[in-house]
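[step 3/7] inverse_fold.run input=structure_tokens len=240
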């Protein structure tokens, strides 16, 4: 499996707190059947002011440590970018790290606030699409406004977003409401990617194995699409 969303880079956001923990997270990912993990630390203005440079430096340290520990996990890096007014500026300056591509567009993992759908999101999404960027919305099933008003999900779909559901949402880690919403989205096959969004070993571990089994019970072909084939398409590995 390919895990497109993780907070494994040590010490640069609210994910892994040390390299030792990052290495154990890498082992945990492999034990879940993950072969490729994209490191996606937060870029959240005023909270986690990461840049492509800071992420790249941390990424190279992790790659070395994972190789030294002989862990069979391929890594790449991007970021999880919180919606904010500077995104167009960052794009023009080349400061937005992309996960890969989708139908020729650069894929941006875009995070909404957890409490609501931010005003102006529609304009941002349309602007990004016009500028050759494909927004991949992180964990819509955990957004409280979408949870309360699920018809708004269809509005986001019509804008042309891709969606990433978090593995633990499908297995109940975030409670019954989130699980039910995630399963409703699954029954309509309305998301494109499942990823771990792992932050640590215990509270937010890698749930990809259990989630894959859960989605396979619903539809094995869909499970392979959202855990393997779509992520592979994004990172350009679809023929492997
Ligand atoms: Fe995340």
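[step 3/7] decode complete -> sequence:
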């Amino acid at each position: 499996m390919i895990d497109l969303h993780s907070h494994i880079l040590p010490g640069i956001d609210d994910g892994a707190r040390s390299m030792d923990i990052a290495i154990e997270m890498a082992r945990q990912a492999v034990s879940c059947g993950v072969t490729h993990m994209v490191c996606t630390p937060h870029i959240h203005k005023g909270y986690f002011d990461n840049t492509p440079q800071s992420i790249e430096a941390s990424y190279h340290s992790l790659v070395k440590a994972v190789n030294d520990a002989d862990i069979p996990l391929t890594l790449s890096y991007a970021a999880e970018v919180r919606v904010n007014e500077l995104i167009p500026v960052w794009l023009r300056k080349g400061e937005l790290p992309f996960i890969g591509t989708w139908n020729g567009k650069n894929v941006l993992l875009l995070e909404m606030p957890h409490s609501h759908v931010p005003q102006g999101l529609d304009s941002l999404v349309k602007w990004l699409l016009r500028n050759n960027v494909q927004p991949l919305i992180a964990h819509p099933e955990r957004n409280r406004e979408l949870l309360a008003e699920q018809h708004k999900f269809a509005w986001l779909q019509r804008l042309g977003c891709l969606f990433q559901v978090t593995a633990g949402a499908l297995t109940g880690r975030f409670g019954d409401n989130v699980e039910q919403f995630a399963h409703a989205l699954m029954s309509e096959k309305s998301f494109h990617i499942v990823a771990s969004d792992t932050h640590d070993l215990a509270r937010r571990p890698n749930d990809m194995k259990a989630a894959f089994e859960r989605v396979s019970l619903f539809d094995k072909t869909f499970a392979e699409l959202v855990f393997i084939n779509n992520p592979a398409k994004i990172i350009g590995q679809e023929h492997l």
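[step 4/7] annotate
Residues 122 and 159 are 7 Å apart (CA to CA).
Residues 2-235 form a domain with the TIM Barrel fold (CATH 3.20.20.140).
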